[in-house]
Amino acid sequence: MFSSKMYGVCLQYCKDQTEAEDCLQEGFIKVFTNIKKYRFEGSFEGWVRRIMVNTTIELFRKKKPITSIDDVVLVKLENETLEEDVSEISREEIFEIVKELPPKYRMVFNLYTLDGLSHKEIAKTMDITVGTSKSNLSRARKWIKDRLTERMDNKESAVC
Prior knowledge:
The protein has seven helices and no strands. It is mostly helical. The chain folds into two domains: about 1-65, RNA polymerase sigma factor, region 2, helix turn helix motif (Rna Polymerase Sigma Factor, Chain: A); about 70-160, Arc Repressor Mutant, subunit A. Helix 6 (about 120-125) packs across helix 7.
């Protein structure tokens, strides 16, 4: 019933389909193992989604421990926007750009933008500092902005 939606959730956080499939399977094992812990507060789908996200975070922590000099420097989060019109970029292209983000940036970006977690919550979840969370989000936004700009420039030059 939830497999396709949860697979989409896993794809947002994982680097490829194989990793997403592993997270999906591991996540559903956790759902079935812990079904008795569901307290009927909020939607069941939301509870399952949270388990899937947490499963991808656990996989991320096991594979790539986050060590960064960003812990030393507290980077101010800027509200970066594209001046150019991004309406010519499809949702699929934007999704692909997000999937290309370096893993630590993608994880923070997804937790902040898709799941609505605060930097404090992200820091606790990922075992990083609040400053690192802010820095990684800022760098992810800049990275995405740069890729969008490149794609828009390529489209413009192809038209000419």
